[in-house]
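Suppose a colleague, Dr. K., hands you the sequence of a protein chain of 366 amino acids and asks what its three-dimensional shape might be. Before reaching for any lab equipment, you can write down a predicted structure in C-alpha cell form. Begin with the sequence itself:
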Amino acid sequence: MQIYMPTNVYFGSNCVVNHRKELAALGNKALLVTGRHSSRVNGSLEDVKNALQKEEKGCVVFDGIEENPSIETVMQARDLGIREGVDFVVGIGGGSPMDAAKAIALMIANPGESEALLYEKRELPSLPVAEVPTTAGTGSEVTPYAILTIHARRTKQSISHKIYPRLALIDSRYLKTASLNTLIDTAVDALAHLIESYLNTNANAYNRMYSEKGLSLFSQMREELMQCRQMDREPGLTLSDTVFDKLMQMAAVAGMAITHTGTSLPHGLSYPVTYEMGVPHGRAVGIFLPGFLNCYEAKEDVQAVLDGMGFASVESFTEYLDELLGKVEISEDLWKQDVEMIMGNQAKLKNYPFPMDEDTLYQFRR
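The predicted structure, expressed as C-alpha cells, is then:
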C-alpha cells in the first residue's frame, strides 16, 4: 500500500495573498488560466494578480477556457504562453480551468510538439502548476488528471500524462457567488469521486481514509445541500460559512481519493451524456450512482458507503438524488452508444473489481 500526495495544500480565508511567497517561488512570469466571468466576479483572479504583483512577478491572463475545455483551446493558450515567455501556470476556477492549466503547462514546456502529445505515453517535462479552485467538485487542485473534450470523438478523456499541481490555494469565500445549480452539481461530482474511489479495484485501507473523511463531511451537510435546491422556491434561505468550508474540504479529500484509485464506471458513463446533451458533469455522473451501488457485488462495502453518507439503503439514497438533481431522460440511442463505449474502455473497466457485461451496465440507467 502506498500514499503519495505531492501537492502543497493551503486552506483558509485569504490564503492566496497569505501564501503569495509560495506562489511566487514557482517562477518569474505566470500564465493565469481561467474562464471569462466567474473568477472576476468572485475575486479570485484579482487576488492572484495582487499576490504576484506584491512579489514583483509578472503575469498574463488567458480567459478563454470553456466548460469542458477542448484540445483546441489548450493549444491556443499554449501559443500565448510561449509568446509571453511564461515559466509557470496558475489555474483559477472550477475543474475546467484547473484541468486545462495542467495540459497547457505540459504543452508550453514542449513547444516543438503537436497536440498529439497530450495522448501519447511519454515521460516529458511540464511547467510548474498552481491551482486556485472556485468550485467544490473536481478536486483537480490535488489530482494529476486533466480531462479534455475531444471533438473528433465526441467525448471527454483524461490526457495520458500525470501532472500534479505544486501548490493548491483553497479559499471557500470564492464559492459564495456560485449559482445554486453549480453548488449542487459540483458537490455531487465530489460525492461520486468518494464513492467510486471506495468501491474500486485499487482501493485499500490507506486510501479509503480519504473517502471515509469525505463521506463524513457529506453526511454533515447533506440537508443543507437539499436546502440549496429549495432556495429557488424560498428566497432568504442561505448557506453558512461552515457549509462552504465543508464543501471545499470534501472536494479536496475526494480529489486525494481518486488520485490513488482513479474513477470508475459512473464517470465513464457520464461523458457522452455531457457531450451530447449538455448535462453538467456532476449531474451526469449522479445519474449513474444508484445503479452503480445496486450492481456492485460486495454489498458490505456498499453498506459502508451508505452508512458513511447517512443513508439506510440504496433506495433512500436514490430518492435523495432524484430530488436534489431532478430526472434526466437519456434516449435509447445514446444509452446504447454509451454502454458500447464503456465496454471498450479498459481504463474504466479495470477499476471495477468484478466482471462487467452489457446487461449489467444497462441496469445503471434510472
